Amino acid sequence: MNFLAHFLVADDDEELRLGSLLGDVVKGRVERYDHPGTTDGIRAGIRLHRAVDSFSDAHDAVRRSRQRLVPAYGHMAGVLVDVFYDHVLARTWAEHHAAPLPAFARDVYRTLRDNLPRLPREAHALVRAMTGGDWLTRYASLAGIDGTLREMAHRTAVARGIAGAAADLDRDYEAYASEFAAFLPDLRTHAAEVVRGLPI
Question: pTM of this prediction?
Answer without folding.
Answer: 0.94
